[in-house]
Design brief:
The protein is an alpha+beta fold. It has six helices and eight strands; from the N terminus they run βαββααββαββααβ. It holds the Pfam family NIPSNAP.
């Protein structure tokens, strides 16, 4: 049940999901925007978002690492960073109800993208696939993703598959100009025979699917 082919380097991404106490979300986001520079001094932040639809009171953030030794050194440095620990961690921990992290790789045929402009919204779609990894479902899944891209209504940012966490999970990050732009595009896709055919072929490998509409924080590199 190996993950199969992946990018031919050691770079991986840590995807962190925090459930924030509903009454504390505003305070948490303010703290992140104010003090995230202490954290980004140690490693690269890909993006930081909060959920608007699909899952309430959650934040998603993605960190890039060169390899596992790099992550170990960063975690050690953070534990000894007095500014990070004293000004941020000690304050926000009581605001968090639950934390979850995953280690994921980009699928072999995907590079990390960027939106064409700042603004807009992101959609985080999580697919739980049948065991076997990209070696099993990769071709059909790629065809479904490309069919959506070819409609021109959305912009692909990244496709990740998990290595640690819940295995056989794929996260797809999309960008749209607005929620209404996304809705219009979805209607068009549902009427596009090419998309319908590709999706029907890929769902034979699918166990479940969830999505969330994400809003980037001002401090997020992906805006």
């Amino acid at each position: 049940l190996a993950t199969g082919p992946r990018q031919d380097n050691s770079i991986f991404y840590e995807i962190r999901t925090y459930d924030i106490k509903p009454s504390k979300m505003k305070e948490f986001l303010e703290m992140v925007n104010k003090y995230i520079h202490f954290r980004t001094a140690h490693s690269e932040l890909v993006g930081f978002w909060y959920t608007e639809l699909g899952a309430m009171n959650k934040v998603f953030h993605i960190w890039k690492y060169d390899n596992f030794a790099h992550r170990t050194s960063v975690r050690h440095a953070l534990a000894n960073d007095k500014d990070w620990q004293g000004k941020f961690i000690s304050v926000v921990l009581p605001l968090i109800e639950k934390q979850h992290n995953e280690v994921a790789y980009l699928v072999p045929w995907c590079q990390l993208g960027k939106p064409p402009k700042e603004g807009g919204v992101y959609e985080w779609v999580t697919f739980q696939m049948k065991p076997g990894g990209p070696a099993l479902w990769g071709e059909a899944f790629r065809a479904a993703i490309n069919a959506h891209i070819n409609t021109g209504y959305t912009r692909l940012i990244a496709v990740f598959h998990t290595e640690y966490g819940l295995l056989n999970t794929v996260h797809v990050l999309w960008w749209n100009e607005s929620p209404d732009h996304r809705a219009a595009g979805r209607h068009s896709a549902h009427e596009d025979a090419r998309v319908v055919a590709a999706v029907r072929d890929s769902v034979r490998f699918l166990e479940s699917q969830q999505n969330a509409l994400l809003i980037p924080l001002p401090c997020s590199p992906l805006k």
